[in-house]
Amino acid sequence: MGAAREARLIAVEERADAVFDRIRAFLTLHRLGPDPVHYAFAYHVMTNPTGALARSVATLTEGGIRLSTRDIEALGGGLASQNPTHWGEALTPRVDDDVAARLVAQTQMHVEGFSDMMRSMQEETADFGRDLAASANAVRGAATGADVVRLATVMLDRVQSAESRLAVATREADQLRAKLEEARGDARRDPLTGLPNRRAFEEAFSEQSRNGQRLCLAVCDVDRFKRVNDQFGHSVGDRVLGAIAAALREACASHFVARYGGEEFVVLFQGEDAEQARATLETARVAVAAKRYRIRETDAPLGAVTFSGGIAVAEPGEPLCSVFGRADRFLYLAKDNGRNQLCSNGIFCQ
Fold first, then answer.
1. Residue in 263, 272, 275, 282 annotated catalytic
2. pLDDT in tens, 249-297
3. Where are the alpha helices (DSSP H) in the chain?
4. Which of 15, 125, 209, 283 is 20 to 30 A from 109, alpha carbon to alpha carbon?
5. For the whole prediction, is pTM greater than 0.85?
6. Is 263 known to be catalytic?
């Protein structure tokens, strides 16, 4: 009995070591720190490789794309201490739930109002047709001119009433159209930076690729961003992301700039080769690195903020996951080479 029990204990320890090794490999592969949320997330992926969370991770990382902390939050990682069973319910970040719910409610209200208006106008039209036929018969049998004037006045009032209701219905339709456009825009916009989000970027790449555009893709990542959040707080980190977004938007004004997630941004260059794209993005990198930021509340210096980037040329018909994977590898070559620089096909610019 003692030998059997010891054998079981050894087997349990071996399984635990194997799980730990897989977790460590997962964290290393995605360059995630071993904090409790990351560890717990990796544990659920590694111990249930066929579950919903593992399948979501496989879909999200297809083509060699690494997970970011923001991706883990989107997959439910922020619920680690509350309810891990919610992991895997979402693949990409979505518009803030309160904003989306409000837009849905407003749109539904306008749809219902417009439907009621159209039903009312349909009934009004039917009544108007019957009244018009009756009035025509009355005019034919009218004995005096006064009777004709009276009937004409009644019909004119009905026409004006119908025109008024039609104007109201038109305004309702315009309001509904505006709300739908607002909802469509918010679903593709990052609320923090105002840039297009990951969904909008993927749609833009797909559309431009189909049109045969010559494309270059840049993946940019704020250097040591976790240290900014840890030292100064997330509100300061959000301002840093806003500043990076503004610099990229200004330098790459004629191209598609989006926030991919977390501290990552992407730029889709249209009609430029790798050298031209690198020169354009270098303008933004230099502008960001030259600034010296201060904390608004205390005027304390934040110091230099920089970003690194990787640039890849998209081959005709090449899927996004493949192009993104190459650009991401070049990004981490730039990181490994000292940060605050760009890399394209092994060529560094700093």
1. 263
2. 999 999 999 999 999 999 999 999 999 999 999 999 999 999 888 887 7
3. 2-29, 36-47, 52-60, 69-74, 97-140, 145-186, 198-210, 225-232, 234-251, 274-290, 320-336
4. 125
5. no
6. yes
